[in-house]
Task: structure prediction
Amino acid sequence: MEATGKAGFVLGNLAEVVERVLGFLPTKALLRAACVCRLWRECARRTLRARQRVAWVSALEAGPADSHALVRALARELEKVQVLPQTVLYIADAETFSGHEECHEQKKARKRNSKETAIALEKLLPKRCQVLGLVTPGVVESHCDCIIIQDILVTPMGSSSNQPQEIEEGEAGFALLFPKIDGVKIHTFHFSKDSKNRVFDESKFAEAGLKNNPDLRVVLLFGYNSWKSGATRFLHQIVNPLNEKSIILAGGQVESFTSLTSENNNAQPGDACGVVGLAFSGPQIQSATILLDQDVADERTAEAAMQRLKAANIPEHNTIGFMFACVGRGYRHYKTKRNMEADAFRKFFPNVPLFGFFGHGEIGCDRIVTGNFVLRECNDIKDDLLHGYTTVMTLIHLGSTKANQV
Result:
């Protein structure tokens, strides 16, 4: 027994052995193990720094009226994830997130509201994590269960081999968990329309890291309360100054934002219109977008559009796909055939998870950013970035990852 105890003590103090064992633990268990002693704490830190792959949690099942499916899924899956989230983007369907669902052509009240649901989600995440939450008419997500539900796009949880789903009915949502990634900076931003000033103060772009930032590569923008007077004009004031050939702009119009927390920004949803988003900076980031216009209306033309995206030659390892589509597309646009665009994406990018939503307008164009190369030559005519009844497909490559990452 004494020899066994000594062996255990020796093994417990060999950094290589400790680090190897801790590498099998999910993040929450790893953080608890870090409290054992200084050696274990240092090993845990090195293990966490090596985990730089984006994780995600998807929800596609309806459940008890007092909590949203995404809250339950996140609470369950955060016990298993292998990353420490630094930035989280979550998107959920507007109907059930805000406490109502369609039932026999009438709205049936549920025992929750959007603020309570957002707070419940935020409480599950690390305190220093910056969070951007949106609700939309529909969702697109990747999920491990092949179930079709409500205008959201999702890729199956933890698996890149399952097809993404255009969810067009019911309760659904996803959360993208971005860890700290070497060479990549991700930050949230928020611009709210000031009813007293018709002209937007462009100095706010620099404060948000969207100007005078040579490493800026991708900006995801989401307009909210687009039905408000002056909302379209305000969106133009935000988008037009950022419309540069060296930056990918993509996104769309959502119902509203429900969470926006960071070190310098803890905004609450209000009655005004505005724009929220995520900015991705880093020389290793590569990205591309394509626009599917109204003429893309069948399987052949959808796949032809994906071939344009494939031709960008964006590395597919450590890459995320986004799909921002008009609420009028989906199976309605493709004559009752569901999942058309998500299936076309999966055919050309079987190992890239896809996320997004169906909204009230789309932001984007055909553009590639890989180092100093862009798809089109710079000229005096800027691309039109605001669209309706279209789909914007986007790839974001976050750089290479170490071979030993989980």
Summary: The mean pLDDT is 82. The longest helix spans residues 38-50. The chain is about 25% helix and 30% strand. The two ends are 35 Å apart (CA to CA).
